[in-house]
């Protein structure tokens, strides 16, 4: 096996690993509000989201072309560079997942690729007009637009439902949320799976396996990326889901449906025009808008502020990791450089995973009462305290029942 083929195999494996992290990192985009409102049980939600993410990945490939051709000079791309960029995206995804911060997987990937390109060839290797027009401007416009649409939609929903008994209204909107959440999952597949397709497409162009004039990646790339994202989605990024569903706003079904509907429309439109949009930022804007639009709702602006800070540093942070990875792998060179880079990535991922196990967040406690922090009120086993035990989703009430049997309630 020659070195270039070895590097291509490493790149494809790493790209699919990124797609997997993208799947569980962004599950909350589609299903957090439905889980928080009780419209769907946690396991049902992630299963439905996984299936629809898989289907959505086959509906559009415009974003794949953006990642492959509009952000960096393809003539300067090497397989080492692509690998380093992927490492930047994966490490940032895992760190923000550990902290329960819904940051942008899209921007992490773009930042990693751009940082690696700067390390390899300098700033002239980056197509800055593409970065600004295809990534930065859509990110700013989309989050503001999503917030406005979510706020107006929520206000209209509550305005039109005046006089309707709350129980009847909640039941109807919970059913509607199943459809709106499904639409967001489908939209997420059309947008986010394309980014990894674009990276593998870029690697195949660099290797010479496909022509630079090809408009679409090979079918096996589309299928592999769709499956990797669906599998990641099914595992459930519970830490992100908890922040999105409980940390920003106490979501009711009418708010959830309004937020999901506005998110789906914006994401689908962006995928159609080929913008590498952050679905995380769109959904966050919609959720915040739903809090603003409901009279008397509490919006936790402190949590939103921490998320905004993470968004601002995503591109440079992932870029720094990508650049350092490139310097290490290129400096060592050959088979050894690629192997060392891959082993360092595996070590970092393992360390982050082990840290997350110290206080588990899963489908049993994802709806526990928010007490100011992701894991506040959860013990070392991830079980919610009795005061914060969620009783509405049908999966965590067992803790309360156990407490009653033990005589502590």
UniProtKB/TrEMBL annotation:
The chain crosses the membrane at residues 45-64, 76-95, 107-128, 135-158, 219-241, 310-329, 335-354. GO terms for cellular component: membrane. It is found in: Membrane. Keywords: Membrane, Phosphate transport, Transmembrane, Transmembrane helix, Transport. The keyword Lipid metabolism does not apply. GO terms for biological process: phosphate ion transmembrane transport. Residues 390-409 are annotated as: Disordered. It is a multi-pass membrane protein. Its main location: membrane. GO terms for molecular function: phosphate transmembrane transporter activity. Residues 396-409 have a biased composition (Basic and acidic residues). Belongs to the inorganic phosphate transporter (PiT) (TC 2.A.20) family. This is Phosphate transporter. It comes from Mycobacterium cookii. The gene is pit.
